[in-house]
Model the fold of this input.
Amino acid sequence: MSHQKPDNILKQPTAVWAVAFASVIAFMGIGLVDPILPAIAASLKATPTQTEMLFTSYLLITGVAMFFTSWISSRIGAKRTLLIGLALIVVFALAAGLSQNVASIIGFRAGWGLGNALFISTALATIVGAAAGGTSAAIILYEAALGLGIAIGPLLGGLLGSWSWRGPFFGTATLMAIGFIAIVVMLKKNPEKPEPTKLSAPFRALARPALGFLAAAALFYNIGFFVLLAYTPFALAALGVTDAITLGLIFFGWGVALAVTSVWVAPLLTSRLARTRVLWLIMPLLALDLAAAGLLAGSIAALIACVIVGGLLLGILNTVLTECVMEATDLPRSVASSAYSGVRFLGGAIAPPAATLLADVFTRSTPFYAGAISVLVAAALVMLGHKHLRRVDAPNETREQEAEILALADAD
Done:
């Protein structure tokens, strides 16, 4: 059956492509401000920690709102939820671009985070529900959109940021408006009539040991992720790399590396190894990469190399963690996604300002070491929760047999 998988991934309903396209643009918002962080700090006379709050307000509100998105989308439907999310991003990205001080941008990024939460969690559930080729094909598509968006974001941010730090915000507003139109035109109706979920569902979901362990691991993993993404521009700026286009190109390389491994390498590894073993193997490698960035923080070339290698490892971990969450319980996928994503984004919210504060109090290397320790904690949590994660480690033969049984049932 497996030889049909690539075909299934590409042969998707137009609704799936519309959501995937809008997802690319949504994920561009994560890395878009990366190359312009030093420029915003200089133009608006803000400290690095104040500037890092652009990540924190965005990710904190995204994380908190994620807990409630399944409740909202199950009542008003996926299409309306996606469109409200996109509309909020357009409005708040435009407002951020028109801001006169860093405090305003921090506030408008929070509104942007609310739109992002409504869109991202609903997009994953919509793609999984509507995609041809099963859950794995859908998650690969979603991770491809994530990787592409994260890769293009810094590049576009760098190009538009070389004109003005306001450019990336106006660019996002324009692209999101295009995404809004694509959803209106191509997603003709809600993929399925949703069954209303309780407001408490995502919180109760976290009480399930499998999801609880994965969400806790993702929180600590995301601290490492955002130390690499959000703090490294300041570490490079301290070495004289402040040009928006240069920073954009460095993080474009990081995003491409992430996209390649999330789409091609992660499925290759999970076809040969249990998912939890992939996490045990790759998380310590990411911790080593962050520790190397700390040891070599005085070298521009070494920091760039650590960023690219980090991208390769993060791509594998993103995909495998998402697959684990979708397979860990028998909960509705929108509920599992809301609960997991809510906790995960809170980890991302902590990391950027904590990193610059650690750098101020100790040394430029300290945030990287803290990120490395955090990723090791994530690996330890996956190991500790191993007995609760047997469901995500169903042997490949079982999955093959399941596919064969379904194929035989279809033939009958």
Residues 61 and 159 are 27 Å apart (CA to CA). Confidence is low (pLDDT under 50) at residues 1-7, 396-412.
